[in-house]
Specification:
Elements lengths: L4 H5 L19 E6 L2 E9 L14 H6 L3 E4 L3 H16 L7 H4 L2 H15 L11 H16 L9 H11 L3 E4 L3 H9 L3 H13 L1 H16 L3 H8 L8 H22 L5 E6 L9 H7 L3 E4 L2
Parallel strand pairs: 2-5, 3-4, 3-5
Antiparallel strand pairs: 1-2, 1-6
Helix pairs in contact: 3-8, 5-9, 6-9, 10-11
Length: 295
């Protein structure tokens, strides 16, 4: 059973990559030093995990307090404002490609069952959405179900950005809102429809992977994340890994070479961007920085 859809949705949940680090990498907070910079830190997040997880991260409070600026994947406050203005531009399907037009009657029944279960609304209410927009919403709801203390108003990325602003830290993003929306929702509608259909047909397995990922993240175990996402049953392609993970890591590294010398920086990105030979930790080491786990 193939699950390539997972790689797209876990950008909003927790993108996971590659296979092959030791147990020393089974943690999600890392210190960056050397190359003439003051100590900075990178934290891997699960974008739907509750903020209570922060209480179990060794050294988090001291690391956060020592920094003067925060970089996330995007500036979430600005992104929220732009989403309110431009959601239709990115998430609405063309009039000739609404879901009722691209799915058969039988397939629409499967989609309807999923929206009724997770949103308590009929699929007809989402007809004008691109399939990727709906599948992302379902994926977030699935992830929310596996965290018993889930609170949509108190998630790690947004909360840390708000805390940083309260501390008068500068808050910036590596990417623009438009970049992420293009990446998430601009694949061909036919591809999006096929991926949504897989998701609703294979719901049990999706939920199993989602639950396992939540458990692994709660244990701060990047090694296990490697193994989960390298499972051939997920069917993640090299193109998807390059587009969703590796290319972005390389772009962020180039920005960090300019950012890190300016001030102690706290970096907050999806946990899956950290490990592997093309992961952010390895790229930082190759660039001459010392990267060590915070204990």
């Amino acid at each position: 059973m193939k699950h390539s859809t997972i790689i797209r949705h876990f950008i909003l949940i927790a993108a996971i990559t590659l296979l092959g680090y030791s147990q020393a990498d089974a943690q999600i907070l890392w210190k960056i030093s050397g190359n003439g910079i003051k100590d900075s830190y990178v934290l891997g997040t699960h974008h739907v995990a509750p903020t209570t997880i922060l209480d179990g991260i060794a050294g988090f409070n001291d690391a956060f307090a020592s920094c003067q600026q925060l970089y996330g994947e995007i500036d979430m406050e600005s992104a929220t404002q732009e989403m309110m203005i431009n959601a239709q531009k990115y998430m609405m399907a063309p009039a000739d490609s609404t879901m009722s037009k691209v799915f058969s009657t039988e397939d629409m029944k499967l989609v309807d069952a999923a929206t009724q279960k997770y949103m308590r609304l009929p699929a007809a209410q989402f007809d004008m959405l691109k399939p990727a927009a709906l599948s992302t919403q379902i994926a977030v709801m699935q992830a929310a179900k596996v965290f018993t203390d889930f609170d949509p108003t108190k998630q790690i990325d947004a909360t840390l950005q708000q805390r940083a602003k309260e501390r008068k830290m500068a808050v910036k993003g590596f990417e623009s809102f438009e970049f992420q929306m293009q990446m998430l929702f601009n694949t061909p509608i036919s591809y999006q429809a096929a991926e949504l259909l897989k998701m609703v047909k294979d719901e049990t397995q999706y939920m199993e992977y989602t639950r396992l990922l939540a458990d692994i993240y709660s244990q701060q175990d990047l090694d296990a994340m490697f193994e989960l996402m390298n499972n051939p049953e997920l069917g993640i392609t090299e193109y998807e890994l390059d587009t969703m993970i590796y290319d972005r890591n390389a772009a962020w590294l180039e920005q960090l070479k300019e950012i890190l010398p300016t001030a102690p920086t706290f970096i907050v990105v999806g946990a899956g961007h950290l490990p592997g030979d093309k992961g952010l930790l390895s790229l930082l080491r190759k660039a001459g920085y010392t990267v060590t786990p915070v204990n």
